[in-house]
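User: Sequence recovery, please. Input:
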């Protein structure tokens, strides 16, 4: 079964919704116009319950099927990025310095399209919980929604999500069982030395020299403390110190990110970073403080739910257009918190080659919105069938 005919008929409407969202990007948890727009569409669609104000501007809408049954969550993120748009599209951002550069406008439109279909047809036994989430890019809105109890409050048993992918053919799907996206941590290392005249360095404790050694030593963690099969990235992204050529500064800063797929690897990297900081501080006579922040855990798909989602994707897109063993990705996703709370799966939906996510020329491909909406709709109909013969 390809794209559902009824959902194909929503294509223009989904594009209209998506382009309104694209013109009106908002960041983080501060999504007043976005959440109001989504809530208005959900009321027009005729959801049975709408619960707003979750994680500030998030919401959960419930649609009940023709019979009682389990609850399945479908999630879309709604926030944009602090990027100046360069698409040149007619629906370009109307807010300077903000744009939908990661497809969240498309994710929201696809879930609204699925909601419209499910509210009209209700060919399922149970309830679908439509999760519209703020702050995926910054702030971990998925974690906040889970902390505020959406899984327990609405009885959600399983949860699924999609993300657009500009490096895959339009309308194709890809996922994998187990780790799919990396966990992401950030670090900020401050160095405090003794400043002074650059002509008399012996009277100083130089944070610049310490920062250079620190950056070099951190890059040995992966090469000498981890296996090549551990799939870890450590990137130093900033070294800042000093303001002129004849002064040894008193302070320095080194920042960066760590990406990993296991708690064991994460813990080892964190421990070695602290040991390196302590060692260089002692060797160089400076004070070094490591602020290591664990942000999003790895996005780990559950085996049974992933296999089921692959079946549904094949039904919608065709078997040859679904990759069930996608390579792991070093990007991160706060859908990981929802997968820690409940079994489920996260998939990529190809939108055709073009500028990558977070690029100022990125724009969601409206032609694939009916594919994503059909996937969500068929997943619910197959997982919660009226005849009781569930697909998963």
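Assistant: Recovered sequence (392 residues):
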């Amino acid at each position: 079964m390809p794209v559902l005919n009824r959902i194909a008929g929503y294509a223009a409407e989904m594009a209209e919704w998506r382009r309104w969202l694209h013109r009106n990007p908002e960041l983080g948890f501060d999504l007043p116009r976005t959440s109001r727009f989504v809530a208005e569409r959900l009321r027009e669609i005729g959801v049975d319950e709408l619960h707003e104000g979750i994680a500030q501007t998030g919401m959960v809408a419930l649609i009940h099927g023709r019979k009682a049954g389990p609850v399945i969550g479908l999630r879309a993120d709604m926030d944009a990025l602090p990027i100046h748009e360069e698409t040149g599209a007619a629906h370009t951002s109307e807010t300077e310095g903000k744009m939908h550069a990661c497809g969240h406008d498309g994710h929201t439109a696809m879930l609204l399209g699925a909601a419209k279909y499910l509210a009209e047809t209700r060919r399922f036994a149970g309830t679908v919980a439509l999760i519209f989430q703020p702050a995926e890019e910054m702030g971990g809105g998925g974690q906040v929604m889970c902390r505020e109890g959406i899984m327990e409050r609405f009885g959600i048993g399983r949860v699924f999500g999609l993300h657009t992918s500009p490096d895959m053919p339009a309308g194709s799907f890809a996922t994998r069982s187990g780790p799919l996206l990396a966990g992401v941590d950030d670090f900020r290392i401050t160095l405090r030395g003794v400043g002074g005249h650059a002509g008399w360095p012996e009277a100083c404790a130089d944070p610049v020299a310490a920062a250079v050694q620190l950056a070099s030593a951190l890059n040995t963690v992966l090469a000498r403390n981890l296996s090549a099969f551990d799939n870890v990235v450590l990137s130093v992204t900033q070294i800042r110190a000093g303001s002129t050529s004849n002064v040894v500064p008193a302070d320095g800063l080194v920042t960066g990110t760590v990406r990993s797929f296991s708690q064991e690897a994460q813990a080892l990297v964190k421990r070695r970073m602290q040991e390196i900081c302590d060692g260089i501080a002692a060797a160089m006579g400076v004070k070094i403080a490591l602020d290591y922040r664990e942000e999003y855990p790895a996005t780990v798909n559950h085996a049974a739910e992933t296999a089921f989602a692959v079946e549904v994707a094949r039904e919608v897109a065709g078997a040859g257009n679904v990759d069930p063993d996608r390579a792991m990705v070093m990007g991160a996703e706060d859908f990981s918190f929802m997968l820690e709370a409940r079994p489920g799966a996260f998939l990529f939906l190809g939108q055709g080659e073009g500028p990558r996510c977070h690029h100022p020329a990125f724009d969601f491909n409206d032609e694939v919105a009916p594919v994503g909406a059909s996937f969500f709709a068929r997943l619910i109909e197959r997982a919660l069938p009226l005849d009781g013969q569930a697909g998963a």
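The first helix runs from residue 5 to 8.
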